[in-house]
Amino acid sequence: MSDAGAAGPEPTAERPYMPGYGIQGPDEGSGLLPWAWAVERLRAARNFWVCTVRPDGRPHAMPVWGAWSGDALLFSSAVPSRKMVNLRANPQVVVTTEEAENPVVIEGRAEILTEQKDLQRFIDLVNSKYATRYRVDFLDPEVNATVAVRPQSVFGLRQGDFTGSPTRWSFGT
To answer: Residue 152 sits in a domain of what CATH number?
Structure first.
């Protein structure tokens, strides 16, 4: 995991295909949004919606606290929780910021973290962001899973420019 800043090369930005919505070309409207726009919202979001799929194919969504680490969205959840059961069966996941007016939507793959340095990094980010005082032993992997959602693609759009701001960032994974 990297620091809270940008990690590695910037993702590729493009206008998503959205037929029937009057979406403008990438040089029209606001143009393609910069990756920094998405990162700013990922850092600032207080809550995130984690969307998984049950083993029988039914969807499941739950809000969580989370922290952007620079290359992944991190959150924790009880090991027997529905989202963790789902992620162990299928690690593909969608995570969205709670703000519908300027949303950031991550499509990615969940990885369960167990290394002490990764758990400590998550605790440090959470304690700083939410003004909590959790200790790393709170993240006992037998009880609480710590998850890194590494983006495969990210989608965002700006309120007030629905047809001229939609941007998809691809990470080449």
So the answer is: 2.30.110.10
Q: pLDDT by residue (tens digit) across 137-159? A: 888 889 999 999 999 999 999 99
Would you list the DSSP string of 117-162?
Answer: HHHHHHHHHHHHHHT----GGGG-TTTEEEEEEEEEEEEE--TT-T
Element (H, E) at 93: strand 92-97
Q: How many CB atoms lie within 10 A of CB 19?
A: 6
Whether residue 21 lies inside any domain: the answer is: no
| Beta pairing, strands 104-113 & 144-156 | antiparallel
- Residue span of the structural domain in which 55 resides: 32-160
Contacts of 169 (CB under 8 A, 6+ apart): 11, 12, 13, 35, 38, 151, 153, 154, 155, 156
Residue 172: predicted pLDDT? 81
Question: pLDDT tens digit string along 92-125?
Answer: 999 999 999 999 999 999 999 999 999 999 999 9
Characterize the bridge pairing of strands 67-68 and 144-156: unpaired
**pTM (two decimals):** 0.91
> Is the separation of the CB atoms in 152 and 94 below 8 Å?
no
Domain assignment present for 2 = no
